Amino acid sequence: MVKLTSVDYANLVQFTALKLHMALLNKTQVNKILFYIYGAYMADNKGALLFDDDTPKAWTYGPVFPVPNKKVVTCQIIKQEDFSEEKIKAFREKKNALKLVTDVVAHMYDKSAVSLTEWSHQPGSPWYQTVYVLNEDGSVRSQNPWNTEIDSTLIRDYFSHKENRIFDEQ
């Protein structure tokens, strides 16, 4: 069976937004939606990773998956024919992941890059916890370097709390 990658899921996010909502997404939207899906999947599946070829990094404008960020062309119209039969079969076998993609895209495709960035930068978010080193009183003491990997435990724990979900996708 073919192994699905971060690029495959980023393309699926774009395909879903266009096919179901007639929307083309920009890079920031693709990255934030992919991060949400990645985190929610991990939380809902006892820490299992949706894909393992890339991990989110803390960039200035939030969590970014460098591989799809570089390889995915956001102005490209993705059609079903762009996915191999093997990849389509692999997506269909992960029904819970496919439903999660559909639900998350439905709730986030029309959010601006600015609003999604504001969401990802909130205090307590995995990005915030990765970027900032805090004093005991919660004030910022220092900042970690950009491109620091966002720890999967931070992501899983964050999305395990219903109040951290933008919506209830289940």
Write up this protein.
It is a single chain. By secondary structure, this protein is mainly alpha-helical. It has one domain (6-160). It has helices at 6-21, 27-44, 66-71, 85-93, 95-108, 113-120, 126-131, 152-160, and strands at 57-59, 62-64, 132-134, 140-143, 148-149. The chain has a 3-stranded antiparallel sheet. A hairpin with a 5-residue loop joins strand 3 and strand 4 (140-143). The longest helix is centred in the N-terminal third of the chain and has 18 residues, at 27-44. The two termini are 28 Å apart.
What is the structure about, briefly put?
This protein is mainly α.
Overview features:
170 residues; mainly alpha; 3-stranded antiparallel sheet; two-stranded antiparallel ribbon
Question: What string gives the helices and strands in order?
Answer: HHEEHHHHHEEEH
DSSP E strands, number: 5
Q: Give the tally of structural domains.
A: 1
* Distinct helical segment count: 8
Major beta sheet, strand line-up: 2-1-5
What global shape is seen?
Answer: globular
Measured distance between first and last alpha carbons: 28 Å
- The stretches of 5 or more residues where confidence is low (pLDDT under 50) are none
Label the structural class: mainly alpha
Percentage of residues in DSSP E strands: 5-15%
Q: What can be said about the biggest beta sheet?
A: 3 strands, antiparallel
Helix content: 40-55%
The overall pLDDT average reads 95
**Rg computed from alpha carbons, rounded to a whole number of angstroms:** 16 Å
